[in-house]
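SEVERITY: medium
COMPONENT: batch folding queue
REPORTER: lab tech (J.R.)

DESCRIPTION
The queue accepted two submissions in a row. Attaching both inputs and their returned structure tokens so the on-call engineer can compare them side by side.

ATTACHMENT 1
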Amino acid sequence: MPSPASPALRPLSALAARTQDGAGQLPAGPGQFASPEASRPRDRRAAAVSLCLACDRAGFARARAFTRDTLRDWRLEERTDDAVLVVTELAANAAVHGTAAGDGPAEFRLGLSLEPGVLTLTVSDPGTDAPVPAPADDRSLPEHGRGLRIVDALADVWGWVPGPAPGKTVFARLPARPSP
């Protein structure tokens, strides 16, 4: 069962915020988006990065590579497979359900946030509809509709928060302990 978004999850409200400073970079404090160059945490207690990507094959491949590279920099290689799978599912949902057709190329924002013991993965898109897992159908193996069930199986908690209109951020939190 998906977990509801909770206001107690401090980083999520910051991750949902999409305000940019004058340089076009998003704020770089803990739990907030930062430029990809900020991917190496200075004190290993908290770090955050984000990337805006196109909803196409190249964008999805870049999201997976960005996730792998960031987790390697954060010494979280043991979380890479689960994190990449979650990012892939959330990005696919953003492309299918969260982007409007017609107004230029569809994009989503990928965010990764590391706080002590917790890796938060976010995908923000301009859609306003709540993500809803497809009903389980044990009689067949459907081609579509399994993504949020996969996210639910891998994440400790997942949910969504509304962003500045229009938009939303879907998040998944995974346990994270840096390797020694």
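ATTACHMENT 2
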Amino acid sequence: MQATKMYGLRIVEPLNDCDPHRLLLAEFVHRSANDLAVACAEVDLARRAATFDDARDRLALVFERLLALASIQRLLQAPRDAQMDFGRTLCELCDYQAKARFAEQGAFVNVRACDIPVDARRGRILLMIISELLTNAARHAFDSSGGTVNIALASRDGEICCLVNDDGNGIATGRAIPGVGSAIITALAHEAGIQCTVRSCRIGTSVELRMPIEIVISPDV
């Protein structure tokens, strides 16, 4: 696998006490910056291809990855409907993330999900958090040997419970996931009443997300 140089933009505005509109804007800017970093790295590889045929093949991969990234953007936009089938939408998100970020690493995203109807606004926030966890895993968890991210979704005792774990490099138990993405995850989870916990595991990183199904959040989110 060829090494890639990552290009990115940092969010310098603090997210403490961020109002809902600014928080969602920060999430969108961060997500878009990550997507543009992927696009820049791929185009750079195509630019440095040894032959025209190599460049053409590389650009075909760029097309597929950008198409998947665009699908993620559409999936995470403000919902039009009041209710969301969260299990089905989560499977769509993971399929797009696998195509956009994991395929070339030889890494896989496995999902076990059930149909859970939820308020679309809350479901969107939970999807944003899971999407950022997947982006973090793609960027930091695996080396050239690849790996697996497992996502298990269940509904029990009036809560949605989603476990996201990978068999990658891992972080220390009890530590926050580092970076700007972690600040956004924390702020989104706080705003929507979602409990986000890094769990102890022998290999890799495991994050548990728990959201009461009946919780009500501000219409502005």
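NOTES FROM REPORTER
The beta strands are 83-85, 107-112, 117-119, 147-156, 159-166, 195-199, 206-212.
No errors were logged for either attachment.
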